[in-house]
Structures are given as structure tokens and as C-alpha cells.
Specification:
5 helices; alpha/beta; five-stranded parallel β-sheet; 196 residues; binds coenzyme A
């Protein structure tokens, strides 16, 4: 049998870095258009959406963070510059998937050991924070296609499953199984209609 290997199976293999960046930028803009009914054009989104700017700054800072310990302080500087302009603080050490969209954005905090899956929608004033200050995994892990409502606070090294919806202003301190809707303080599971 012919060995196909990585080259045949990886859709981005052989593409230049520039082309991959262009593709990622385009999918970030498409995600914003899809998630925000008020978005009218990709150009306007690219120019005026702080949530999109913050994610792009994070992606550069994250590459610096992962590349070399010497670049880590500069990655922090870049993320603080992004915070100054957008009001969104994403630690460069956080791990964030594709098509992540932060709508409105102001007041978002994403901690160093947070992990966020693909196609996650987050509104303003969400915190993915720690409950302790040690140098270990102390921030949440969020699955794919999760909605994080405005003002939601997720704290501690909890796991939020795929397709979960966290309501506006919920406080979540425990694991959430996939597909659940969680609202309130502390968060309680509800049977939502899964349209929001
Ligand atoms: C949690 C959420 C995703 C649930 O959506 P849904 O699946 O359509 O669920 P429903 O609207 O049917 O609500 C299910 C139950 O939770 C309650 N509920 C919904 N959102 C709530 C919230 N944020 N806080 C407290 N209770 C809430 C509803 O009253 C309902 O209660 P009931 O079963 O006692 O009648 C949605 O209400 C929400 O908060 N989305 C975030 C929106 C947001 O942040 N918008 C900002 C735009 S700028």
C-alpha cells in the first residue's frame, strides 16, 4: 500500500506562512460576520471590532511566547498594548482555538493556563480566571462551540464540555458536561432551547 503520510493528509502542508495567515484572518472575519447580526461587512469588522483585534494580537503574542523564553517578556508587552487599545486581556500563554470571536470585548480576561476550543463565542466582561496563585494549571478548559454570555465568570481548572452555553453573569466553579446550559450564581444547569 502506498504511504500517503503527512503531506497528503494535512490540508495546510506546503502552504506559505503568509497564505496560512491570510486564511486564518479570513476565517476570523467570517466567524465575526456569522456570530454578530449587526456586522455588515468584513472590512468594517477588520477595522472596528476590538474583539477581532485582540485575538489577532494574541495570536502573534502566543507565537512569541511559545518560540523562546527570551521573547516571553515582549509577548507580555504586546498583550498589554492590545489590552490598552481593546480592553481585552488575553495572556499570551493561553491556548485558543480557531474562529474564536469576542463580541464587544471590553473587560474580558483570559488567564495564562486557560484553554479554549474552536468556534467559541464570548461576550464582554467574561473572565476565564484562576482560583489559586500557584504555577500550575489553574484556569478553565473550554470545549468547542461554547457560548460564554456577557459577564460570565469561570474560575479554577474546570472543564466546560463541547456545545455548552453559559448564561450572562453566571458564575461557574465546577465542570460542565457537554451540551448543558448553565445560569446563575453559582451556576445551575437548565434545559435551554439551545438557540441562543
Ligand atoms: C443562558 C442562555 C444561553 C440560555 O439560552 P437558551 O438555551 O435559549 O435558554 P432559555 O432562554 O430557554 O432559558 C432557560 C432558562 O434559563 C433562564 N435564563 C436564561 N438566561 C439566564 C441568565 N443569563 N441568568 C439566569 N437565568 C437565565 C431562563 O429564564 C429559563 O429559566 P426557566 O427554565 O426557569 O424558565 C441565554 O439566556 C444567555 O444568557 N445568553 C447570553 C446572552 C448574552 O450574553 N448576550 C449579550 C449580548 S451583547
Amino acid at each position: 500500500m502506498k504511504h500517503t503520510g503527512h503531506r497528503a493528509t494535512c490540508p495546510t502542508h506546503g502552504q506559505s506562512l503568509l497564505w496560512r495567515v491570510v486564511l486564518r484572518v479570513r476565517e476570523d472575519l467570517s466567524a465575526a460576520m456569522e456570530e454578530d447580526p449587526a456586522a455588515t461587512s468584513k472590512i468594517l469588522v477588520a477595522l472596528t471590532y476590538p474583539g477581532v483585534h485582540a485575538v489577532w494580537a494574541y495570536r502573534v503574542a502566543h507565537v512569541m511566547w511559545m518560540k523562546s523564553p527570551l521573547l516571553k517578556p515582549w509577548a507580555r508587552v504586546l498583550s498589554q498594548i492590545a489590552r490598552f487599545f481593546t480592553g481585552i486581556e488575553i495572556h499570551p500563554g493561553a491556548t485558543i482555538g480557531r474562529r474564536f470571536f469576542i463580541d464587544h470585548g471590553m473587560g474580558v480576561v483570559i488567564g495564562e493556563t486557560a484553554e479554549v476550543g474552536d468556534d467559541v463565542l464570548m461576550y464582554h466582561q467574561v473572565t476565564l480566571g484562576g482560583r489559586s496563585r500557584g504555577r500550575f494549571k489553574r484556569h478553565p478548559t473550554v470545549g468547542n462551540r461554547v457560548l460564554l454570555g456577557a459577564g460570565a465568570k469561570l474560575i479554577g481548572p474546570i472543564t466546560v464540555g463541547d456545545d455548552v452555553k453559559i448564561g450572562a453573569n453566571a458564575l461557574v466553579v465546577e465542570d460542565v458536561p457537554p451540551g448543558e446550559v448553565v445560569v446563575g450564581i453559582p451556576g445551575k444547569r437548565k434545559i435551554g432551547d439551545v438557540i441562543a
